[in-house]
Amino acid sequence: MKTLLSLVAVALLLSGCGGGSPGPSVSLINLRFEDATALETTATFTLRLSNESPQPVPLEGEVHKIYLNGLYLGKGLSDQKVEVPRLGTVTHEVKVHLSNLALATRIKSILETKSFEYRIVSVFHGKSWWNRLKSESSGKLELKDLIPETDATNAPPLTPSP
User: Fold this and answer.
1) pTM, to two decimals
2) Which of 1, 26, 117, 123 is the least crowded, having the fewest Cβ atoms under 10 Å away?
């Protein structure tokens, strides 16, 4: 009996170590490229965290792995404390370091299709090591949504001269 209780305790302990109750869902709502070197580009991802739970979700830190058209590009880490309100959303920015070598292999297909699919695999850390939440989200972005329109201006229209 004692051995059985020990086995059950170990099984419960190990199942907790895998960590990862479902966390807030993550949506990419903006992407801004900042610094670039030969091997790495730093981008700021604006993420929307959505909580479908009737309880607020306090977060002590986050790890977001970014995939583009199925290829791992890089990850963003944040030690910013964020609380996702109950049945609500919050937006916040995360700096992501992207591999230019991995990105270069995908540029041609992105330019040809004028769109790309992304996947974000996130791990959220709570106040204790045991309090980890996981989330995975994906979506598709069109290049036209990331490029500002060049013909948009607030200047008065030109009138042809007689």
Assistant:
1) 0.70
2) 1
Q: Is 27 exposed, middle or buried, given 0-12, 13-18 or 19+ CB atoms closer than 10 A?
A: middle
Burial of 110 from C-beta contacts in 10 A (0-12 / 13-18 / 19+): middle
Arch. (CATH architecture) of 21-138: Sandwich (2.60)
The domain limits of the chain are 21-138
Chain segment 15-65, per-residue pLDDT in tens: 344 444 688 999 888 888 888 888 888 989 999 999 999 999 999 999 999
Instruction: Identify whether the C-beta of residue 124 lies closer than 8 Å to the C-beta of residue 62.
Output: yes
Cα–Cα dist 19/41, whole Å: 31
